[in-house]
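Protein Record: Sequence and Backbone Structure Tokens
======================================================
Tokens: labelled as protein backbone structure tokens, with as many entries as the chain has residues.
Question of interest: how does this chain fold, as expressed in backbone structure tokens?

___
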Amino acid sequence: MKNQKNENKAKILDIVYHPNKILREISKEVSIEEIKKPEFQEWLKSLKLTMLKKDGAGLAAPQVGKNIRVFVINDEKNNIILINPKITKKSWAKDLDNEGCLSVVNKKGELVYAPVLRHKKINCTYLNEKGEEKKIKVEKFLARVIQHENDHLNGVLFIDHLSSPLPDLPDEIDNTENQQ
């Protein structure tokens, strides 16, 4: 029973909200040495758990207050951790579809959605949670999610892709959730 407790130290992390400056910073790459540390592995579990509990399609490290190049996506079969991702190829074809973000809420604290133009297909290289080099080819929804989460690592939010600003976004808010 004791081992079971130690294996599941994952906790729900606080979400950082726009306009917190953390969301506008360019994130730093993660070293292989850092990836191998037990505390980093535990943090990755917490990132996954937070994405699932908040019903996100993905979650990037800056959204939980860490400016490192890491995000997790939910592809319905499993959760994929992408560390130091690089989009290596983008299709010419693009698609316009609604996006939302756990870090972008209106003044009532509700998620907001707006149409964003994204590439339909992408190729991406990354390190997995073991530090192994991986490649992924995705299209449609997963391509959109990876582009959205990768933007977070570069200090870009989906609202930056809009031709006009969304109404009712806060200028100043309490930037993290109040976890009890």
